[in-house]
């Protein structure tokens, strides 16, 4: 399974972001990638205003998501990334991780852990999600998704691994600050190693967010990493995954029950 991770600075104008994503999706397709991971909040961003994405949310059937669906259908690449979606039943928009394959929305996960930390308060402008996302199967590989701050909470990644995930996926806009690159790298490697899963993580790269997108193997070896605006590729191998789980059978040896989000259910793909 070849995957692509597209790191870039999200523009203030949605149309420019669509053209950037289209370019990366075509590049991913040309290089044989089946999945393209994008950053968090890809409709619109402003490095001086962390709440800009929420204030520029669109309906899930609006023009931005429609364009993403068209790109997926055109290229045959499954797109993964987060958009801010207007919810007519809620007073605030949702931060939604979308998986779009063959032009169809296969998953819409509303972020569980809102970023109320390091002086920011995402919950002031975003509705909290209350459902554990199901795994998504692509070419026999099972993907479990997380959004940014979710990475700091091991329960969601472990729940995905127990449910059968082969790959953990993180779409993020990881804010800059003291030690934040170290936090990001340590947590990405830890989530992969402690669950013996591949991990692919994409962070927006701008004056506000760190970039440092990466792919990590099940033994926490760095497979690919980007510090600039570009697309990187990684090849996930089933034998490597199986060998890691035979060598380090933590999922079999664990004694705790599966984490449970209160009031939530897990559905299947």
From TrEMBL:
Sorted UniProt keywords: Hydrolase
Domain CN hydrolase: 1-238
Pfam families, per database record: CN_hydrolase
Record GO terms (molecular function): bis(5'-adenosyl)-triphosphatase activity
InterPro entries in the cross-refs: C-N_Hydrolase, C-N_Hydrolase_sf, UPF0012_CS
EC top class named in words: hydrolase
UniProt-listed Enzyme Commission number(s): 3.6.1.29
Family listed: Belongs to the carbon-nitrogen hydrolase superfamily. NIT1/NIT2 family.
Protein name: Carbon-nitrogen hydrolase
Species per Swiss-Prot/TrEMBL record: Bifidobacterium merycicum
């Amino acid at each position: 399974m070849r995957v692509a991770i597209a790191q870039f600075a999200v523009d203030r104008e949605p149309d420019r972001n669509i053209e950037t994503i289209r370019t990366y999706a075509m590049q991913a397709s040309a290089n044989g990638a089946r999945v393209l991971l994008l950053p968090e909040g890809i409709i619109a961003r402003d490095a001086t205003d962390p709440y800009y994405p929420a204030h520029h949310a669109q309906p899930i059937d609006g023009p931005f998501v429609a364009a993403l669906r068209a790109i997926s259908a055109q290229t045959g690449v499954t797109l993964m990334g987060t958009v801010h979606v207007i919810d007519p039943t809620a007073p605030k928009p949702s931060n939604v991780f979308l998986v779009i394959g063959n032009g169809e929305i296969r998953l819409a996960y509303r972020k569980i852990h809102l970023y109320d930390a390091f002086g920011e308060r995402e919950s002031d402008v975003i509705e909290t999600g209350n459902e554990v996302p199901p795994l998504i199967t692509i070419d026999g590989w099972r993907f479990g998704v997380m959004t940014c701050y979710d990475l700091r909470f091991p329960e969601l990644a472990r729940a995905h691994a127990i449910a059968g995930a082969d790959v953990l996926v993180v779409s993020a806009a990881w804010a800059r600050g003291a030690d934040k690159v170290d936090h990001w790298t340590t947590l990405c490697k830890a989530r992969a190693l402690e669950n013996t899963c591949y991990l692919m993580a994409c962070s927006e790269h701008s004056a506000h967010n760190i970039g440092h997108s990466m792919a990590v193997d099940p033994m926490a070896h760095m497979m690919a990493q980007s510090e600039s605006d570009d697309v990187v590729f990684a090849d996930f191998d089933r034998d490597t995954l199986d060998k890691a789980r035979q060598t380090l059978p933590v999922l079999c040896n664990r004694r705790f029950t599966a984490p449970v989000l209160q009031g939530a259910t897990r559905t299947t793909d």
